[in-house]
């Protein structure tokens, strides 16, 4: 750190040295001062030009897309501690920190209809110019260096953060850092009140969006005050700093108390804030000395300035040369259209965006947004959908699901939604650069839902597990109720459902639900009836379940579960059709049945065989049930087949003679009629299906001219023969038990979950203590969920779960009309649980809060007639009071800075 305790005054040097007036401060009104002011203006214009040359006309990625998309709406939400719009409702993260000055800056330019990209560049320009002028002014006041060295280090100080700072919010504290120190070191006769208040105002202008970096700007001023023994001024200054920061300090404290801690800072900008100013001041001083030393040793006086100029160019080069990722000319019109469509719908419910990237939809839509939970993410990524997915979304209050198709292949998501019965209702934008040209944005309707539910006590269970276990538990027990996690349970006597079987329980579980954390994914996904196969999309399948179950008492449990069809021989043995052509191959690209060799002769245009990419001599062998007169073949390739078409083939008949032939444009190979039973096809040359990429050969169907009726399709509605042993392998304490599955061929081919159960006696008797339960793959299926249900459990009350409407007078309050209830119930609202919410019934009685499903807000309601429940987020009052108090104290600091005498008085804080 430069020694700020000593001012360096310039003295006349030997002839030829780089120097300007004998003192470091330019004389007011001098021609040289006018020249340097002009140069400062040119420096700022250069920085502005640098900002505007980067991706002109395009919006750059920012940490807060709302600042450009909808700054007015963003600032309006920032005035409330609770944000019901985002992620099932949550405490504001750092939005309050943008209330000054970043938010108003963007709001004003938006109100003036300034294009978004220009607003972004103007803010960057302001940041860089403030940093540039701040270092120039600070070096001049401290009389460090000479004008050209001050100009050089100021320019470098502004440029370097622009290179390393990804977003302007990270650079803004560094830009304001010299202005915080400047009033404290001013050489003019100033009162301590004046110095402390102006420095505090500069600190207030940093805002609270990055509190760690903001606090780091106080390090250098505090060191300077302490090193100069100005303890009284330091205490007064800290008081002013706190007063000017109340408007974001109070919200920050409430955020730590009622919400999650804000994201951790990027430490590179924080370190830059601490060391940047001292390095810049030292640079101005030592550059002058270096120039003088170089001149005294006979080096041209222009060498050092030239080197510094090269450094400045090098610092600006990345900004000039590199093209930023994620820049766009504007928010695509299809996002605005999707947001408008969603807001036009009258049906209640939130919107779930199936994407982990920053999207403009959150800033554009008024309808509340849901959060993508780990369980939903796992289910949609697997390509396996069932009613559990739809039920989970319905209980979460999600009405619409939005799929973004322009960034990644979303085939698995589409199949999961289709299998769950969730249909598309709207789409917007052009097709993306993916395998299937889906529209850019699609909207799916989950079905009728309500933002609140009244759950009778008899429909509740306590789950010993995690929030991700709850959807599986609720589905396994019938799907009509709900659950609380054991640690959140405030209702005595709820049935216990054990999922965390690693620990002993002191209560006899009414059921034990074991689920696989890994669903896996087949190498073939589906688009309607078409199977799209690829080695890249396959994921490891689970092998089964193996758990140790602890029971405090002996009991009998019924065992049942759900399993997924498993790729392999066991499954494919069920597929051949009597009297049909069969096929074998030298290799195959995927193990899924849709990509088996027999797919080439199953009369199903949705399935295809494709050779392994590493197969040097791919071949396909067709065997007829009996010898027939055959006169040719026809190869058919689906447009979406991830392979190449046959171009030339070598045909071998019954292991004897062979011919070589070219496949014509229509896929035909014709030859003189031959009486054969086996035809081996060697693919000796291929042609690309869609582009120039040479992928492995593949065919959708091979028609045998003269015996084409022997290609027979698998009946998708044919039920799989159900017999003991065609289900998963079950062993309890080493004792095997047989199971059976009930499924159709469609279920197996499309990899849909199928139920399985024990053969014969459906229940097993278990003594108290520890039991090893193993449910492993078998019969062509692999278990993903197994339930042990205590005999007699499940005869629950017929009282249904009722949906209720929720009204929000403002973000921090809600009102619910609750129907009459014959038993104790729980009022659940589809928003995140937070201890700050308090609810009261119609009589003014405070209700007991309870967390539902591991995350939802709920309150316990006694039985009684219809009533109105009101709830408020109590910390919101402190939040608004903190903002108001912060405004008052900030104005007080401003008044002190403007109206307090500039010169010292006897009543002022002594400098």
TrEMBL record:
Residue ranges of every copy of the Alpha-(1->3)-arabinofuranosyltransferase N-terminal GT-C domain listed in the record: 47-259, 273-512
Region annotated Disordered, chain positions: 586-618
One GO molecular-function entry: transferase activity
Residue ranges constituting the Arabinofuranosyltransferase D third carbohydrate binding module domain according to the UniProt record: 580-709
InterPro entries tied to this protein: AftD_N, CBM_AftD, Galactose-bd-like_sf
Entry keyword set: Membrane, Transmembrane, Transmembrane helix
Gene3D superfamilies in UniProt: Galactose-binding domain-like
Top-level lineage group: Bacteria
Membrane-spanning intervals of the chain: 122-142, 201-226, 233-255, 267-287, 299-322, 881-901
Keyword Membrane among UniProt keywords: yes
Protein name, as recorded: DUF3367 domain-containing protein
Organism the protein comes from: Kribbella jiaozuonensis
């Amino acid at each position: 750190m430069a020694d700020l305790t000593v001012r360096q005054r310039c003295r006349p040097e030997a002839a030829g040295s780089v120097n300007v007036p004998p003192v470091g401060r330019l004389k007011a009104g001098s021609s040289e001062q006018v020249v340097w002011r002009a140069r400062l203006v040119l420096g700022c214009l250069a920085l502005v030009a640098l900002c505007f040359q980067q991706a002109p006309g395009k919006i750059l990625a920012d940490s807060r897309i709302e600042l450009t998309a909808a700054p007015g709406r963003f600032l309006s939400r920032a005035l409330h501690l609770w944000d019901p719009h985002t992620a099932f409702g949550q405490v504001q993260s750092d939005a309050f920190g943008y209330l000054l000055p970043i938010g108003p800056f963007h709001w004003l330019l938006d109100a003036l209809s300034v294009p978004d990209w220009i607003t972004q560049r103007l803010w960057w320009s302001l940041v860089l110019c403030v940093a540039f002028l701040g270092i120039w002014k600070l070096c001049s006041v401290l009389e460090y260096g000479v004008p050209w060295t001050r100009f050089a280090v100021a320019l470098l100080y502004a440029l370097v953060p622009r290179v390393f700072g990804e977003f302007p919010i990270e650079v803004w504290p560094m830009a304001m850092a010299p202005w915080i120190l400047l009033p404290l070191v001013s050489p003019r006769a100033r009162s301590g009140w004046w110095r402390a208040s102006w420095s505090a105002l500069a600190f207030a202008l940093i805002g609270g969006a990055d509190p760690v970096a903001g606090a780091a700007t106080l390090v250098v001023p505090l060191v300077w005050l302490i090193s100069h023994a100005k303890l009284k001024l330091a205490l007064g200054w800290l008081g002013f700093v706190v007063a000017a920061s109340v408007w974001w300090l109070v919200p920050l404290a409430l955020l730590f108390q009622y919400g999650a801690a804000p994201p951790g800072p990027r430490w590179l900008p924080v370190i830059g804030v601490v060391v940047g100013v001292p390095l810049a001041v030292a640079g101005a001083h030592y550059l002058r000395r270096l120039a003088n030393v170089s001149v005294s040793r006979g080096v041209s006086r222009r060498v050092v300035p030239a080197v510094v100029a090269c450094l400045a160019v090098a610092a600006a080069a990345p900004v000039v040369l590199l093209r930023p990722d994620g820049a766009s000319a504007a928010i695509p019109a299809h996002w605005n259209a999707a947001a408008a469509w969603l807001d036009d719908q009258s049906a209640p419910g939130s919107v779930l965006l199936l994407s982990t990237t920053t999207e403009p939809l959150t800033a554009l839509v008024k309808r509340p947004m849901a959060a993508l939970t780990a369980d939903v993410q796992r289910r949609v990524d697997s390509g396996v959908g069932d009613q559990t997915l739809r039920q989970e979304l319905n209980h979460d209050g999600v009405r619409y699901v939005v799929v973004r198709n322009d960034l990644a292949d979303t085939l698995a998501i589409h199949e999961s939604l289709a299998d769950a019965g969730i249909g598309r209702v709207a789409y917007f934008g052009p097709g993306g650069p993916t395998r299937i040209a889906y529209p850019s944005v699609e909207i799916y309707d989950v079905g009728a839902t309500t933002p609140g539910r009244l759950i009778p006590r008899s429909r509740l269970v306590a789950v010993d597990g995690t929030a991700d276990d709850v959807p599986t538990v609720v589905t396994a027990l019938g799907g009509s109720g709900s659950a609380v996690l054991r640690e959140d349970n405030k209702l005595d006597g709820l049935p216990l459902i054990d999922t965390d079987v690693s620990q002993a329980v002191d209560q006899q579980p009414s059921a034990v639900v074991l689920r696989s954390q890994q669903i896996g994914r087949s190498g073939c996904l589906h688009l309607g009836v078409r199977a799209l196969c690829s080695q890249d999309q396959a994921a490891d399948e689970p092998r089964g379940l193996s758990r140790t179950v602890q029971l405090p008492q002996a009991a009998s449990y019924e065992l049942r579960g759900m399993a997924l069809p498993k790729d392999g021989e066991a499954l494919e043995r069920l597929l051949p059709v009597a009297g049909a052509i069969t096929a074998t191959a030298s290799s195959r690209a995927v193990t899924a049945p849709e990509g088996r060799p027999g797919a080439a002769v199953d009369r199903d245009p949705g399935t295809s065989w494709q050779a392994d990419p590493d197969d040097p001599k791919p071949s396909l062998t067709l065997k007829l049930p009996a010898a027939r007169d055959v006169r040719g073949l026809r190869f058919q390739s689906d447009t979406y087949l991830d392979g190449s078409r046959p171009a030339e083939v070598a045909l071998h008949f019954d292991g004897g003679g062979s011919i070589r032939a070219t496949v014509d444009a229509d896929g035909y190979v014709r030859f003189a009629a031959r009486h054969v039973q086996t035809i081996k096809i060697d693919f000796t040359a291929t042609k690309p299906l869609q582009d120039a990429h040479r992928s492995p050969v593949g065919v959708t169907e091979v028609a045998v001219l003269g015996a084409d009726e022997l290609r027979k399709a698998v009946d998708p509605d044919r039920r799989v023969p159900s017999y003991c042993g065609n289900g998963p392998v079950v062993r309890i304490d080493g004792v095997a038990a047989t199971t059976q599955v009930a499924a159709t061929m469609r279920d197996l081919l499309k990899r849909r979950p199928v139920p399985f159960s024990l053969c014969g006696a459906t229940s097993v008797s278990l003594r108290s203590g520890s039991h090893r339960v193993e449910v492993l793959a078998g019969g062509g299926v692999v278990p993903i969920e197994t339930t042990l249900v205590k005999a007699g459990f499940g005869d629950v009350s017929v009282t249904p779960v009722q949906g209720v409407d929720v009204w929000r007078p403002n973000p921090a309050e809600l009102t619910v009309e609750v129907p009459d209830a014959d038993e104790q119930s729980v009022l659940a609202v589809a928003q995140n649980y937070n201890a700050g919410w308090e609810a009261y019934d119609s009589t003014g009685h405070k209700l007991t809060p309870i967390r539902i499903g591991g995350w939802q807000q709920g309150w316990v309601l006694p039985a009684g007639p219809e009533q109105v429940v009101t709830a408020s987020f109590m910390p919101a009052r402190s939040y608004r009071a903190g903002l108001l108090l912060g405004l008052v104290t900030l104005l007080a600091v401003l008044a002190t800075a403007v109206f307090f005498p500039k010169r010292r008085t006897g009543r002022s804080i002594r400098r």
